[in-house]
Every structure is written in structure tokens, then in C-alpha cells.
């Protein structure tokens, strides 16, 4: 039960990402209902938001506990790669936002030609 409460608390910390993900899911559902198909761009952005939220929760809360004993023996550069730090999450979210905007406004590369 304690683990479940810790997971719920972690998800609440990531609430803005969850709300964005739910808004994108609603948008994807509406797009599917209107057009009969789901944009691959919207689906990819939803997947990126989900990965960012879950990865952020896991690597910020669970990984430091699971590798605590081994952290001192790892090189600094490997420690940096193993932790899902803020810049990594920010880059993933920026890509996901861009894809979500592309999907929302049905932007395509053919419009620019």
C-alpha cells in the first residue's frame, strides 16, 4: 500500500504533464471521431508526453533508491547518463509540444512547398 501511495504522490507531482497528456488524448479522440483516422504526429506526441512523465517519475524517485549502493562506484559521466535529469525531460517535452501543435493544426510539409 505504501508503494501505491508513493506512486500516486509522484504522479501528482507530474500533474501538469498528466493534464497535457489528457488534453492531447481528448484532442486525438476528437480527431479520430471527425476524420475516422488518427494522426501519426498526434499519436507520437502523446507517446512522448507519456514517456516523459513516466520516465521523470521513475528516474527521479525510484532509480536513486534502487542503485543507491552502486552510485559511488560508477563514473560521474555514467551517473549523469543514468539519471533522467531536467534538461532531458525538457527536450522531450519540447519535441512533444511541437508535434502536438503540428497535429492540432494539421500542418504538413506540403503546405510549405
Account of the protein in words:
With 113 residues, the chain is mainly alpha-helical. It has one domain (2-107). It contains five helices and no strands. Helix 1 (2-13) crosses helix 3, helix 2 runs antiparallel to helix 3 (40-66) and helix 3 packs antiparallel against helix 5 (86-104). The N and C termini lie far apart (57 Å).
Question: Summary?
Answer:
The protein has 5 helices and no strands.
Please specify the SSE layout and strand pairing.
Elements: H1 2-13, H2 15-35, H3 40-66, H4 76-82, H5 86-104
Helix pairs in contact: 1-3, 2-3, 3-5
Q: How many beta strands in the DSSP annotation?
A: 0
The average pLDDT score comes to 61
Distance between the termini: 57 Å
Q: What would you call the shape? A: flat
The amount of beta strand, in percent, is under 5%
Largest sheet features: none
- The structural domain count equals 1
Radius of gyration using CA atoms only: 18 Å
Task: Provide the structure class.
Answer: mainly alpha
Helix content: over 70%
How many helical stretches? 5
Low-confidence stretches: 74-82, 109-113
Query: SSE string, helix = H, strand = E?
Result: HHHHH
Task: Looking at this protein, list some descriptive labels.
single chain, 113 residues, mainly alpha
Amino acid at each position: 500500500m505504501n508503494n501505491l501511495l508513493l506512486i500516486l504522490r509522484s504522479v501528482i507531482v507530474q500533474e501538469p504533464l498528466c493534464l497535457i497528456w489528457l488534453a492531447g488524448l481528448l484532442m486525438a479522440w476528437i480527431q479520430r471521431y471527425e476524420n475516422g483516422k488518427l494522426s501519426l504526429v498526434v499519436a507520437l506526441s502523446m507517446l512522448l508526453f507519456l514517456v516523459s512523465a513516466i520516465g521523470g517519475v521513475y528516474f527521479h524517485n525510484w532509480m536513486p533508491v534502487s542503485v543507491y549502493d552502486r552510485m559511488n562506484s560508477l563514473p560521474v559521466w555514467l551517473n549523469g547518463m543514468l539519471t533522467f535529469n531536467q534538461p532531458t525531460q525538457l527536450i522531450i517535452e519540447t519535441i512533444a509540444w511541437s508535434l502536438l501543435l503540428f497535429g492540432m493544426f494539421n500542418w504538413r510539409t506540403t503546405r510549405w512547398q
